[in-house]
Predict the 3D structure of the following.
Amino acid sequence: MAVTLLAGLVLAGCAGDAEPGATGAPEATSGESGTAGGSVEWRIALNQTADHPITVSVQGMADRVNELTEGRVDIEVFPNESLGAQAEALQLVADGTIELAIISGPQLENMNTDFLVFNLPLVFDDIDHQMSVVNDDEIVGDLYASLEDRNVSVLGAYTAGDRNIYTTDKPIVTPADTAGLKIRVQESETHLKMIELMGGSPTPMAFGEVYTALQSGVLDGAENNEVSYVSQRHVEVAPYFSYTRHLIVPDYLVASTSSLDELSAEDRAIFDEEFLASVEEQVALWATATDEAIAAMEEAGVEFSDVDTSLFADAIAPLVDSSLTSDNARAIYDATRAAAA
Ligand code: GCU
């Protein structure tokens, strides 16, 4: 039984060339985990393609951890939603069925609303500001530990760049241009309200379904960074790209708390160190990947609109105060803004 399940997972892991969104969720854990200090086989679920900067950085982390622990911590990387879309992957981590996943901010907001702070527009000035906050234990320590009673440890975050609106039929230049358009958002209240404030009709949807929905007309647009726009091939079906720069959202590394507890102190230290190294690597790769994506967009004949971003910022600014309803969320927001250069 265990062998069959493992074989299924390995096959799913070969999905590097699969269509974005191809899924094949695991049915159960491989049952390889042992007592603290023993050997473990871990799986990490991502919704990105194999060559996306986060996948590349996570693969580097996995390779180094495997080598430095002499195989005691053996991490296998599963890109392309091959273990499920993010909502499912997060549930699998909470269940202890898989050990690690990369999960975008909006999904964590659904487990503890205080996470919405980092999903708000205008909270981060730029990627440097974001990265100086999302791995600063003083600001995020309690927040990241807050899901442990549900078996989810948030270990830190990578950047997912700044997000922009793109559409199938006409360019978006002002917020009013979104009126009547179905714009895909990640599955969170904050992002639903954000598109409503612009004037559009938000449609929450898993990442891997967006391409087909844009292609078939179920969606009129979506919002994302350039790298995902190209790697998910949305560029083929939504050729109007407007630089609204309305959000900079983190991608978190989450772990099953019970799995982390199985590591010896030495292996845990190696894992933590290599995770932080992978964050540095990812931020460096991000800049290059963004330039490459822009070149691919130019090549594909995308119509770029350099919009007045303040119009979008003004339209969605009310979201900040209306969302910061707990003292915790307000304190994290204030600390984040205080860390801006
Ligand atoms: C980005 C982000 C992902 C997220 C995706 C989305 O690609 O890195 O974590 O899932 O956007 O829009 O769903």
Notes: The first strand starts at residue 40 and ends at 45. The two ends are 55 Å apart (CA to CA). The longest helix spans residues 265-299.
